[in-house]
Automatic annotation (TrEMBL):
<dbReference type="InterPro" id="IPR005493">
    <property type="entry name" value="RraA/RraA-like"/>
</dbReference>
<comment type="subunit">
    <text>Homotrimer.</text>
</comment>
<comment type="function">
    <text>Catalyzes the aldol cleavage of 4-hydroxy-4-methyl-2-oxoglutarate (HMG) into 2 molecules of pyruvate. Also contains a secondary oxaloacetate (OAA) decarboxylase activity due to the common pyruvate enolate transition state formed following C-C bond cleavage in the retro-aldol and decarboxylation reactions.</text>
</comment>
<dbReference type="Pfam" id="PF03737">
    <property type="entry name" value="RraA-like"/>
</dbReference>
<protein>
    <recommendedName>
        <fullName>Putative 4-hydroxy-4-methyl-2-oxoglutarate aldolase</fullName>
        <ecNumber>4.1.1.112</ecNumber>
        <ecNumber>4.1.3.17</ecNumber>
    </recommendedName>
</protein>
<dbReference type="InterPro" id="IPR036704">
    <property type="entry name" value="RraA/RraA-like_sf"/>
</dbReference>
<comment type="similarity">
    <text>Belongs to the class II aldolase/RraA-like family.</text>
</comment>
Length: 224
């Protein structure tokens, strides 16, 4: 699924926390997959590759991916670097959307300030070999979740999530509604309301204590 400017703008208006609030089944990569670059925001289709202790597959993926693609590397969560400065520079030259590596990455002297979003599980100076072609364009496991070719990868400073293409529009709409509600709640808190006020906390707890079904719902306006 191509990422249109409209979709990209809608993601810029929200964040991964709102996406997860909108759908608790959203696939979230493990917290160990951390940003290594100054730029953290990613939004693009996954170009997947599986390899073990060998970076040849990552090199193949960087060269085969289309502009805007996010190379997602199933490196088996091993502490071996499967990329570094040259890979980031090569991905930038091909206008890729980012690198997400479930293994190690290195050369942070360059990567930490490069324009390409780079995520990895480890930082290590030890690189892998380059003698085993990788498996490209297959379902992989990255950060403990399944990532299919073409799944949409969305990331920011909070983490990395993966969404099926056919769900992205409705999920972004729901996330935007959540952000708008949050903005209204912040306004109430700034005006002196308490958390108990904005979440009708007492009523919620009382209902639960009575054994009645209840959900914690925000109040964007004072009651009455």
């Amino acid at each position: 699924m191509p990422v249109t400017e409209d979709l990209a703008q809608r993601f810029r208006a929200v964040d991964t926390t709102a996406l997860c609030d909108a759908d608790k089944t959203t696939r979230v990569l493990a917290d160990a997959i951390r940003p290594r670059s100054a730029r953290t925001r990613i939004f693009g289709p996954a170009f997947t590759v599986r390899c073990r202790d060998d970076f040849l597959g990552v090199l193949q993926a960087v060269e085969a991916a289309a502009p805007g693609d996010v190379v997602v590397v199933d490196g088996g969560a091993r502490e071996i670097a499967l990329g570094g400065e040259l890979f980031a520079r090569g991905a930038l030259a091909r206008s890729l959307g980012g690198l997400v590596v479930d293994a190690g990455y290195r050369d942070l002297g360059y990567v930490a300030n490069c324009a390409l979003p780079v995520y990895s599980r480890f930082v290590t100076p030890m690189s892998g070999t380059a003698v085993k072609p990788g498996e490209l364009g297959v379902p992989v496991t990255c950060g403990g979740v399944t990532v299919n070719p073409g799944d949409l990868v969305l990331a920011d400073g909070e983490g990395v999530v993966v969404v099926a293409p056919d769900r992205i529009e409705s999920l972004l709409d729901a996330a935007l509604a959540i952000k708008e509600t949050e903005t209204a709640l912040v306004g109430r808190l700034d005006a002196g309301a308490t958390l108990g006020d904005v979440f009708a906390l007492a009523e919620h707890v009382t209902a639960l204590e009575r054994g009645e079904p209840s959900a914690l719902r925000p109040r964007t306006r004072p009651p009455g």
